[in-house]
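Same chain as my last thread, 740 residues:
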Amino acid sequence: MSEQEEPTSPAGGVAPAGKTTAAEKPAGKAALAEKPTEKAPTEPAGKTPAKPADKAGEKPADKAGEKPAGKAAEPRRRFGLFGGKAKPADPAPAIPAPRTGEPTTEADKSASKNDKPAADPGKPATKDEKPKPGQRPPGAPPDPWTVFAAIGEQPPGRIRRGLRAAGRALTHEYPLATYASVLLAVLMTWPTLRYPLNTLPQDLADPARQAWQIAWGGNVLIADPVRLWQSNAYFPLVNTYAYGDSLLGYTPFALLGDGPVAAVLRYNLLFVAAHALLALGAYALVRQLGARPTGAAVAAVAFAYAPWRLAQEGHLDIVSAGAIPLALAMLARGHGWSLRYGMRPKHRSAGWAAAGWMVATWQITLGFALGIPFAYVLGLILVALEIAGLIHRVRRPEHKLLDRFLRAPVKPLLGWQLMATNTIGASLFLAVGMVIAVPYLRQPDNPTRLQEIDFFSPPLQSLLIGPAESGIWGAAHETPRASLGWPAEMSLLPGFALYALALAGLAFSVWKLRHRMMLMVAVTLAVVLTLGTNYLGGHYTYLPLFGHFPAAFDQRIPGRLMLWVTLLLAILAAGAVDDFVRRARHLAAQRVPPWPGPWLRLAMLTPLLLVAVEGWNNTAHPTVPQQPAAMRTVNGPMLVLPTAELSDQTVQLWSTSKFQQLANGGGRFAAARQAELRSRVASFPDAGSIEYLRSIGVGTVLLLRDQVAGTSWERAGDIPVDALNIQREDLPDAVVFRLG
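reply #2:
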């Protein structure tokens, strides 16, 4: 650099005095020599040099060693590889001025193609005007593929969004559990749906009467709801719909169809659906408690198809217990409680709690045989919540006495929404139960009620004896079953596979040790209650809780509390199965590939298969006798002969076409009165029986010819009646006596 030239900075300005520019720094050991091609004009301080016109379409120089736009020109230096002299920068070629209206640069061409104004040649080109690769020449038609590239992905319409939401809803865990529960119920109750129009499960006694009960509820709600509890049977007694569990919750299903065929079909469908609800409710409860799907499935099948339940297949009110675990699952979900994870306030939902109380209320409408023990359990849960809330208010995390007095008030454990939901839900449950209980309280009490409780109390060994309807243990346990006083209500085996899994759940489980101990204590208490008076005479166990209820509430059979023993054992078993599945998955994760092999999968499904096999049924499905044509034409009040405790329940089913008033009525209900009726009409037609029937308001007697063989009325249709002051009408299948 000559002495006359001032050193300049890399940006083109004048270097300050006493400082060395970047170009003057040595490179390696030798200083880099520079040879400027032009002298950089200097500008006075504070003034900006004029901007030279850039070439159109080119990007302003901004790289290292180049003069940025808006600065004074600087000689372009190029350094040799080993410190040699740099070559002088090539001078920029002269660019002729563009003609008016003619695009010269690629940026101008692109702008003209897109109908945009061309760049001003007098202004520097911006970065967006830089030519892009693949641009078409001027005058060429637009690329057709750009149409597709410009169109973005369209959002789905309402129909498609609705279909996707429906698909997700139908393939969720609980819809899949529902499908599986229904399919399993059809298989495990087979052949109920093989001939659903003319067969009933187990026998023609209680199933026929309960089919009539459901049909009566649907008929009277349309015709005259005020007469709900005054059924057409057991004439002239009152509140006869309260004979046994009313199954009032099934009344909406009776609004469609009429007659005995529809009643039988309706009963069979509800019978299968009740089994499906048993499995689904238990699955939901155990899943809410914290078990995995496999453990919950084992618990659901063990609870729904326990061998002892096969002896109750003739009692739809006892089979219809699926709402109990389902309501408990909803209540636990609403309160954010899980056996495995404890209380989780973020998972609380007043809506789920309200749904749980509604399901519990529906369960109480099905009957008091299971509803009263369920009410005790709900009351115990409310007491536990109240105690927990009290402890929450009293307990203080601070250790200083002064902090306890200065601390702000403690918030409620559940919050006002859940507290209000529980108050309203419990009130609704009690209100509905009390309204339904009114006609039951009006029924006369049975003086032998306590003796019946003692008679039906099962011994401890009954928990190891299967019923006759069991396909696995029915024949094998025939001898020990004969030693029971009433085998139908005392064969209480919940399943040996369930016993084994529950016992394993005490040793290893996903439940915590204290929870397992609590479950075991609860199982013990439930077994003690199930034994009735066979444990300490029942004076401190069963009788204080259930012995004071009138006979109409049907608390005389302690063995039906086996439902709670089975549910608690199923929860223990689910913990063991869940822990086994967890260990199996951990073992499978170490394999290559990391998923369970076929033998390991079979091992995980073995508990499910064992509990399902033990629940296989051998239940009879007798054919329902065809309804006599006279039952569709003859009006009441009437008496149908022959009459007996079992056959009268079929007569009640036949009356579902016309619902005429009947003196007939089966079962153990009003046993003294029905026994008197049958003894007084045993010699019909005679003067004494006719006078008795007239005294109770019966004006017609219908004698069924094909039913009287072997009874005391076998020749009643051939006896002359002219001297008895009654009328007689012969029909193709019956004889009608008009008593006047």
